[in-house]
Amino acid sequence: MMLPEPLIEKFIVFNCNAGFSVKGTEKGFYLSKKNKKSLFVSNKGVMNKEAKSVMS
């Protein structure tokens, strides 16, 4: 699933407000929370499986 560029920032802000910490890398952003799997969104908007499940 590709996340449109305007929604990437909103997705990250929403999850930060939900208690996730964000670590930016040159490939994208990792969002992690204690006892949860890490979410990953690439700079191009491609998400990992866990991030897709948050969007559903």
Task: Give me a quick take on this structure.
The protein has 56 residues and is of the alpha+beta class.
Question: What topology does this entry show?
Answer:
Elements lengths: L4 H13 L3 E4 L3 E5 L6 E4 L6 H7 L1
Antiparallel strand pairs: 1-2, 2-3
General description of the model:
- With 56 residues, this protein is α+β, with helices and mostly antiparallel strands.
- Helix content is 36%, strand content 23%.
- The chain has 2 helices and 3 strands.
- It has a 3-stranded antiparallel β-sheet with strand order 1-2-3.
- The mean pLDDT is 88.
Brief descriptors of the model:
three-stranded antiparallel sheet, 36% helix, alpha+beta, 56 residues, 3 strands
Low-confidence stretches: none
Number of helices: 2
| Termini Cα gap | 11 Å
In this structure, how is the largest beta sheet organized?
Answer: 3 strands, antiparallel
Number of strands: 3
Coarse shape = globular
Order of helices and strands: HEEEH
Helical content stands at 25-40%
Radius of gyration: 10 Å
Structural class from helices and strands? Answer: alpha+beta
For the largest beta sheet, what order do the strands appear in spatially? Answer: 1-2-3
